[in-house]
Amino acid sequence: KIIPEVHSGIMKASQLKRNDVLIAIVGATIGKVGIYDSDREANINQAIAAVRLKRTSEISPDFLIAYLLSDMGQMYLEYLKRPVARANINLQEIASIGIPILTINEQIRFVKQFNSSKSNYKSKLRQADGIISICKDNVFASLKLQFDEYRPSFYSVSKLGDVRELGIYCNPHSDYLNDVFSKLRANNFFAGHLEDFVEINPKTSRENLQDKTAVSFVPMTAVTEKTNEVVYELKTYSDVRTGFTIFQKDDLLWAKITPCMQNGKSFVASDMPTDIGFGSTEFHVLRARNPEKVYMPFLWVIFSNDHILEAAQGMFGGSAGQQRVPDTFLKKFPIVLPPYEVQVKLADQVFEALEKAKKMRAKAEYDWQNARKQFEKELLGE
What is the DSSP-derived secondary structure letter of residue 173? Predict the structure, then answer.
C-alpha cells in the first residue's frame, strides 16, 4: 500500500521509476540485481540501491543488469563489499562501477545471448525439480493418496478428538491440515500415529564421547531443500557438547522453523561419517523404533512432500518471524506404512530420480558457467 505523503514527501529520494536498476547492497543478498519494470508508485529501503541511467541511448538497463550478473560484475560487487558486522556496499561506491564500452547494438546482442543462456539454465533446473516432484507424487499415487492443492481458509472446523489430540491451531492452513490427516487415516495402509513406530526427539547416549572424540556437525545451512543432501563437518565433542541437537546415524532430521520447514530442509543421516552427530536446535529428530518395520528413507519421502509440508503449517506456533512446528505434529501424524519391501521400492524410485536430477543440475551449472565465461571474454574483447 502506497502512502502518498510518504511516497512524495519524506521518502521522495527513494522513489522508483520504470527501468531503474536495483542492486542489493546489504547482508547476504549483496549481488542480487533486478529491474523495476512497472509504472506504479514505489519506494525502496536502505538495503537496495537504485541506479537510474541518464543516457539510455548509450547504456541499456538490460545490459547493465546482464553485466552485473556476469562473473565480472559479481566480482566487482564483491570487491566493493565492506566486511563489517553486517556486510554492505556504500552508495557512493555504486557510482564507481566500471562498465565495458559497447555500442547499443553490441549491448543488445550481448543481452540476447546472456538472457537466452540464463533462460536455458533456469529451464534445466525446473526440469530437474520436476522430475523429483513427479516421482514423489507417484509414491502417494501408488498408495492411493491424493491431496488437493492448498487454499487458505479463514475459519476451521475440527473434530473434538482432533482438538484434544493436537491442540487448537487457528490459521489459514488449519482446514488443509485436517483434510490431509483425514485422508491419511482413511488410507488402506494407515498404521497409526507416527510416535508408535518412530521416536520423536529421542535421547541419545553420550557415554562413549570424550572431549577429543570426532563427531559430525550439521548447521541448517549445510542441508539442501527437498533433495536429502547434506554436507557434514567434523568437530570435536568439546566444541559442540552444548547448544546443539544430538542425533545418531540413520536418524531423520526435519527442520521445524520457518522458512526452512516449508522449503523442505531435511535428510536421513545414513552416510554420516561418525556414529554421533550434532546439529541446529531447529531440527526435529526422528528415529525408527524397529528398523525392520520402518524404512527411514521412505519416511523422508513422506515428510519432504509439498502437501505434507503445507499441512504442517497448520500447527505453526510462535511469532510471525520465528514460527515452528511442534513435535505434536510428528507424534500424532497419521502414518501410512505399506509392507517394508514396498517402502524400500518406493523410496528407491525417488532416490534414483534425485540422482538423475543432481546430474541434470550439475550439467546446467557447467553450461551456465561456461556461458558466463564466454560473455566475459566478449566484454573484454578477447
Answer: T
Number of H helices, E strands in the chain: 13, 13
> What pLDDT does 169 receive?
63
Instruction: State the Cα–Cα distance between residues 291 and 9, nearest whole angstrom.
Output: 66
> How do 214-218 and 233-236 pair as beta strands?
antiparallel
pLDDT at 2: 43
**In the chain, which residue ranges form alpha helices assigned H by DSSP?**
4-5, 61-69, 71-80, 91-94, 104-142, 160-166, 174-185, 237-240, 260-263, 296-303, 306-312, 327-331, 340-379
**What are 140's three cell numbers?**
502417494
Distance CA 17, CA 375 (A): 29
Among 358, 300, 291, 369, smallest CA distance to 330 is for 300
Burial class (CB in 10 A: 0-12, 13-18, 19+), 95: exposed
Its pTM surpasses 0.90 = no
The SS3 of residue 341 is helix
State the amino acid at position 280 in one-letter form: S
Are 222 and 232 in contact, with CB atoms under 8 Å apart? Answer: yes
Residue 158 confidence (pLDDT): 62
pLDDT of residue 93: 81
Residues (pLDDT < 50) of the chain are 1-10
Strand residue runs (E) in 221-313: 233-236, 245-248, 252-255, 266-268, 276-279, 283-288
Structure confidence by residue, pLDDT tens digits, 197-247: 999 999 999 999 999 999 999 999 999 999 999 999 999 999 999 999 999
Q: Is the dihedral of CA 130, 132, 137, 138 positive or negative?
A: positive
Q: How many CA atoms lie within 13 A of 96 on its CB side?
A: 10
CA atoms of 157 and 307, how far apart (whole Å): 20
Omega before 259 within 30 of 0, i.e. cis: yes
